[in-house]
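User: Run a structure prediction on this.
Assistant: Running it now.
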Amino acid sequence: MLQRMARFVIEGGRPLRGAIPVLGNKNAALPMLAATLLTEAPVTLRNVPDILDVRVMCELLASLGVAVECDGARLTLCARDAAPRPLDPGLCRKVRASLLLAGPLAARFGRAELPPPGGDVIGRRRLDTHRLGLAALGLEA
């Protein structure tokens, strides 16, 4: 059975011009923030949204000794002095993204100890996929 492809037909005599700025989003920014733990070199991220999840992740990283500088939508982080420290359970309960720190912490320090993540209650969101992924990389729960 052949499927008919959807298409847009644009009619008009005017050429299109202009630019549409691409806005940063948390689903891209949060894993990149967590990954800054993997290097001692400074990392600059641009077009980072100024939202609660990003601010909390920056607080969590700062509590581990990561230097965090914010200049509008640009963040510069340096994990040179990062060290394994207990994470604030209250901060972890604010965002589900705190779970993203598990892999970088384990890779850099050989272990990761995280309080349960929180975040919005928008239905069932399982944690076992993260645990299984880390186990496949050789980590034990």
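Helices lie at 26-35, 52-63, 89-94, 102-109, 128-136.
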